[in-house]
Amino acid sequence: MALTKEEAKVQQETRDTVIELKTILLGKDGDRGLAGVIYDTAKGHSKLKRNFWLLVGFLAGIGVIGGSLFGILNGG
Q: What is the residue-wise DSSP string for 29-75?
C-alpha cells in the first residue's frame, strides 16, 4: 500500500519534528541539551542544600557551646 503525497509529507514532517525534539532534549555535537541542563541544575541544588545544613549545624553547635560557656561563667 503506497503512501499518497500528502501522507508522505505528513510522515516526513513528523520525523523531522521528532528529530528536532530529540536534539533539544538530548543535545547534539557536544551540547548536553535540556536534559544536561536539568542534571547540572539538580547537582548544584544538592550542593546548596548540603552547604545550608552544614551552616545550620555549625551555628547550632556554636550556640550550644556559647550558651554553655555563658552559663558556666555566670555561675550557673
A: TT--HHHHHHHHHHHHHHHHHHHHHHHHHHHHHHHHHHHHHHHHHTT
